[in-house]
Design goal:
Bound molecules: flavin-adenine dinucleotide
Strand content: 25-35%
Structural class: alpha/beta
Number of strands: 18
Strand order of the largest sheet: 7-2-1-11-18-17
Number of domains: 1
Largest sheet: 6 strands, mixed
Radius of gyration: 21 Å
Length: 379
């Protein structure tokens, strides 16, 4: 069976690794001419680490990033609203969250894939399905495939070709991300921090010994742009009531590397598949980043899809089973992440969230996190 993956982001590369591990013949087509070396950091949670362990890459990812022993939501002075217990940021086997540079993660995934599988500089243009195969066009050439996997992100062209009316939701918030050349004070060395002010948030964690990944979120009109000469001063002004550490982190960042993204998600799709085409990752269920689970969910897709395909040679049945296996958790992440973001940016919402955090017993919190961190072990 020939399998084609469109998109060489986290979802596409992890899917190629999973399929390759189980002996499938697959090819990835990515429109970028080179592997992405920009980007900020990313927090990989225990469910993602489980998939990476299964692929034999978990240790390399852990060594290349920073293990987080705690993740705290704090006030603007970095005082935790409620101190998290270790169990909340690790699974029952002790897997912790890893904070890593996104480009480092992409490189690890890319280099683990045997040569010849990933084709860079190939932009997917259109598809046509017949009874047995999918004809895939890249403009200058066409290929036939038994299964097409759309891993081409939130603006998926594959999705647009199989479903006519899908739409994105803008949360009203915009996020700035950067990498700062700073070493945090000892108390924050292995911590993930998200601090809340009035309708603004600032988060950070060490990703290497000398680099800190940070994100800043505030309400802003969609499609805004930045002036690289003033962006640092503007952000420092926005966060001037926060701990001086926040200002230092922003100051020690290269302004031209600060990334600005509107925070969006994908309105729930009725289905993730049609005939012999299936969507994975952000193409299927892009989420707001508030739970730090988008890439983790993409990795789970890769793991489930490959394992289910390995046990069902009827493609359409297999991709339908894949969706059934993944739907509930992906929906849970998208919905809760959206709610979290809306509450965190409303005065009343923050009061409710703080009360819930204080009143929720640690045991209940652990149960919820363990559910999120668990993946099916046997198929
Ligand atoms: C601000 C922010 C912070 C985040 N933080 C976290 C976090 O801490 N933890 C976490 O787990 N997740 C996080 N996420 C989510 C995570 O980044 C995404 O869920 C994840 O990258 C999705 O991967 P993907 O491969 O599905 O999509 P993408 O990363 O968008 O990759 C899609 C790929 O497809 C390619 N492509 C697109 N169109 C075509 C075409 N026509 N032909 C060929 N190739 C094409 C693109 O070039 C790209 O390489 C965050 C997201 C944001 C916005």
């Amino acid at each position: 069976m020939q399998i084609t993956i469109i998109g060489g982001g986290i979802a596409g590369l992890t899917t190629a690794l999973a399929l390759n591990k189980l002996g499938f013949d697959c090819k990835v087509f990515e429109r970028a001419k080179q592997l992405n070396t920009v980007g900020a950091g990313i927090w990989m949670q225990p469910n993602a680490l489980k998939v990476l362990d299964w692929l034999g890459l978990g240790e390399l990812v852990r060594e290349s990033g920073t293990l987080l022993n705690q993740v705290d939501i704090t006030n603007a002075q970095l005082i935790p609203l409620k101190k998290t217990k270790q169990e909340v940021v690790q699974d029952e086997k002790g897997n912790k969250i890893v904070a890593i540079h996104r480009a480092t993660l992409q490189k690890i995934l890319f280099e683990a894939i045997p040569q010849g599988i990933v084709n860079l500089g190939c932009e997917f243009k259109s598809l046509e399905q017949n009874e047995n195969q999918v004809k895939i066009s890249f403009g200058d050439r066409e290929i036939m495939s038994h299964l097409l996997i759309g891993a081409d992100g939130i603006n998926s062209k594959v999705r647009g070709d199989i479903f006519s009316n899908t739409s994105k939701r803008f949360s009203g918030q915009t996020c700035w991300r950067g990498i700062s050349d700073i070493r945090l004070p000892n108390e924050f060395q292995n911590a993930g921090i998200e601090s809340w002010g009035k309708r603004i948030r600032f988060g950070f964690s060490q990703i290497t010994e000398s680099q800190v990944y940070w994100f800043a979120v505030k309400n802003a009109p969609q499609n805004g742009t930045d002036n690289k000469n003033t962006i640092k001063a503007e952000l420092k002004n926005d966060f001037k009531s926060f701990s001086p550490l926040v200002s230092n982190i922003i100051e020690l960042t290269k302004a031209d590397k600060i990334i600005r993204n509107d925070i969006l998600d994908l309105k729930r799709l009725e289905k993730w598949h049609k005939s012999k085409v299936v969507l994975v990752g952000d193409a299927a269920h892009a989420t707001t980043p508030n739970m730090g689970q988008g890439a983790g969910q993409a990795m789970e897709d890769a793991y489930y899809l490959a394992n289910i395909l390995a046990r069902n040679n009827q493609i359409e049945q297999a991709i339908s089973l894949f969706e059934s296996a993944r739907r509930e958790k992906a929906d849970y992440v998208v919905n809760n992440s959206w709610r979290f973001g809306q509450m965190a940016h409303s005065g009343f919402g923050q009061i409710i969230m703080k009360t819930i955090m204080k009143l929720t017993p640690d045991k209940v919190m652990n149960q919820q996190m363990n559910k999120l961190y668990s993946i099916q072990e046997k198929f």
